[in-house]
Amino acid sequence: MTISFSNALGVHEQALLLRGERSQILATNIANSDTPGYKARDIDFATVLRQRMGMQWGDLEMATSSTRHIGSPSGAMDQGELLYRTPLQPSIDGNTVDEQIENAAFARNALEHQASFQFLNGKFAGMMKALRGE
Amino acid sequence: MSLMSIFDISGSAMSAQSVRLNTTASNMANANSAAGSPDQVYRARHPVFASIAAELLGDADANAFAGEQGMGLGVQVMGILESEAPHQERYEPEHPLADENGYVYYPNVNIVEEMANMISSSRAFQTNVDVMNAAKTMMQRVLSMGQ
Q1: For A39-53, B12-26, B29-43, which range has the lowest pLDDT when averaged over its residues?
Q2: CA distance B87 to B83
Q3: Half-sphere exposure of residue A22, counting CA atoms within 13 Å on the CB side?
Q4: Helix or strand or coil: residue B106?
Q5: What is the per-residue pLDDT across B77-125, written as a single tens digit (0 to 9) for each?
Q6: Are strands B103-106 and B45-53 parallel, antiparallel or unpaired?
Q7: Number of other residues whose CB lies within 10 A of the CB of residue A115
Q8: DSSP bridge pairs for B91
Q9: Are B49 and A28 in contact (CB < 8 Å)?
Q10: Nearest Cα to Cα of residue A24 among A65, A82, A70
Q11: Dmax over Cα atoms in chain B, in whole Å?
Q12: Does A21 contact chain B (CB < 8 Å)?
């Protein structure tokens, strides 16, 4: 019997990484709250995570050794989709960042990051317990 | 490491906002600086913000989404523009700087606009500090994994 980390840790490892990436996107939105013409971006977390998990579990990918190579469809899907936020009200400079929405999303994402971390930490604690056998 | 780049992103925003606060301070300080000719009169300065493209930051691998079109990684100040709004001319013949017609020239600084800019930039600065603190907490938590 072999212990595979991806089997043992489940979705939480990918979820924690993706939470980190999403927090970067949201931080960029907040940083650009006064930039004329900047469009707020976000990802659909569930869709992207499902795509990444699907990739990990056995999809065959075409090798790409140059940036000009076209990857397999599943490889292209791995990028997920960086979407644009729909603004609630127009602004005169074309900026679509709503600071309150971005702040709330960032805080929520930070909390969900903590949740993912706690699950992952629990997995590690469980493995340690099993290894010690006390 | 995407959490690490939040420090760059929020840092760039904080530096851009402090440039804005700097120009606001300069405009407010010079709001009543008189000049003897229209060429010498102080003009209100405003920074122009633009988002930094991901590839310029050389950090395209940090986030899988960074390569996508239009995904910025922070803010930069493109430059500082002098306002083209008309300056004020006041008839003050007793003023030591008055020209031969008795006119003194005052800057085109709009105090109300500058106050709004000041509040907006200090609030935005504060928000970015909060974001940076949140990112720090998240990183510290991850560093304590397995302990």
Answers
A1: A39-53
A2: 10
A3: 28
A4: strand
A5: 999 999 999 999 999 999 999 989 999 999 999 999 999 999 999 999 9
A6: unpaired
A7: 14
A8: B103
A9: no
A10: A82
A11: 80
A12: yes
What is the distance of C-alpha B93 from the center of its chain?
Answer: 37
Q: What pLDDT sits at residue B12?
A: 93
In sequence order, what E strands does chain A have?
41-43, 82-84
Encoded tokens for B145: 């994994």
Residue with tokens 């590690």: A124
A91 touches chain B (CB under 8 A): no
What would you report as the CA-atom Rg of chain B, rounded to the nearest whole angstrom?
A: 22
User: Hey, is the C-beta of B140 within 8 angstroms of any chain A C-beta?
Assistant: no
- Across the interface, do B3 and A23 touch by the CB < 8 Å criterion? yes
**Rounded-to-integer distance, Cα B92 and Cα B70, Å:** 53
Q: Which has the closest alpha carbon to B108: B91, B90, B85, B92?
A: B85
d(CA A18, CA A96): 23
**SS3 labels along A81-118:** CEEECCCCCCCCCCCCCCHHHHHHHHHHHHHHHHHHHH
DSSP state of B35: B
Segment holding B5, helix H or strand E: helix B2-29
CA–CA dist A75, A61 (Å, integer): 6
What is the model's pTM?
A: 0.80
Would you state the structure tokens that stand for residue A129, as one six-digit string?
């317990």
CB-based contacts of B140: which residues, under 8 Å, 6+ apart?
none
Nearest of B51, B20, B4 to residue B124 by alpha carbon: B20
Tell whether A117 lies on the interface with B, counting CB pairs under 8 A: yes
Structure letter (DSSP) for residue B83: P
For B120, which residue in chain A has the nearest alpha carbon? Answer: A34
Q: Cα–Cα distance between B144 and A101 in angstroms, integer?
A: 30
CB A25 within 8 A of CB A43: yes
